[in-house]
Each structure stands twice: as C-alpha cells, then as structure tokens.
Amino acid sequence: PKDGDVKDEL
Amino acid sequence: MNIFRLAGDMTHMFSVLVLLLKIHTIKSCAGVSVKTQELYAIVFATRYLDIFTSFVSIYNTFMKLVFLGSSFSIVWYMRYHKAVHRTYDREQDTFRHWFLVLSCLLLALLIHEKFTFLEVLWTFSLYLEAVAILPQLVLLQRTRNIDNLTGQYIFLLGGYRGLYILNWIYRYFTEPHFVHWITWITGLVQTLLYADFFYYYFLSWKNNKKLN
Question: What is the predicted ipTM?
Fold first, then answer.
C-alpha cells in the first residue's frame, strides 16, 4: 500500500 | 503507524480477549449476542480477503489472523460448546441480523470507490461493522442486565472506535492524499452508536438503576 492508503489499517 | 492507531488496535484486541476470557474461563456467554459476533466474523472474513494478495507488515497479518481466529472461536463457543451454549440468551437475542447483512451488501453494491470484487466486499465490511453492535445493544436493553465483563467488552470496543477517529485526524494532517469518505462516515456512525449507548449506560449507573 502507498502513502495515505487506508487499507493498511485493520 | 501512529500512537492512536496502535492504541486503537490494542484496545480492540483487549476487547476480544476480555470476551474470550469470559466465555472460556466462566463458561458463560450470558448477555452476549451471538448475532453481533457472527456479524463481526463476516466483517473480518470479507475485509481480510486481501490477506493473501497484499502484504503490509507482519504486525498487520498477525492482527488480521488474531481477529479472524477470535471472532470465529467466539461464534463456535456460543453455538457448539455445550456448557457455553446453555448460558446463551436465545429467547432475547432475536435481532434479525441477516437484514443488516443484506442491506449492507446492497449499499456496498451501490456506493463504493471501485467496482471490483475485493473492493465491494471491503466496502461491505465497513458498512456491516458500523452496525454490527446493534444486536448486542438490543439484547442488553431487553435483558436490562449488564455484567462487568460484557460492559468492559463494549467499553473497550467504543474506545477502539474513538481512537481510530483520532488516528484518521492525525493521518489527514500528516499524510498527503489521506481522504477516505466511506471509511470516515461509517467509522463516525459506528462511534456515535457507542456514544449513545454509553450516555444511557452512564445515566443508569449514576442513578444506580438497571439499563433502560
């Protein structure tokens, strides 16, 4: 995931 | 990863551990809605489908496995463990949660960022998570009884949602391109449901009365 991507959250 | 996000994840993990501890050691799930737990199992199963396709960090993969494992274990305990199942408030836990699943699926098909299989299911998991606590809140209102562990479970879940909002505010100001309306609105709706519940929980605690 790139910077600012919410998909790195749970 | 900022401190709000980490604190939110830890609070979330503790909430699930508190519930598992209650069920595993006391062998009781009194006051716990299996419908809410099934909704969470669906939420994690649909959101974490990317566990095979996109790797973020060992931390992320580990936590995803924790949430998948714990939510399915809780459902298994409540449905199939004989001693635990006996303590389940079946007559009171009657919320029609499949309507929530269906409505969230329709909404995800209508409102999403990209129309792909993974993206629609990911959006569906956000919508469903926002309302997944409803059967639990309805059950609490019906039984009008809340033991310490169930109270702590909901309190920790509410804390986790609040911390995630602080995390988004922090990320918005520190990361370029961090604008995610669907995530924010569903997160806000979810947090407001908890805030509303705690408002009444606090009132009944202050008046030393049962939940109304």
Answer: 0.89
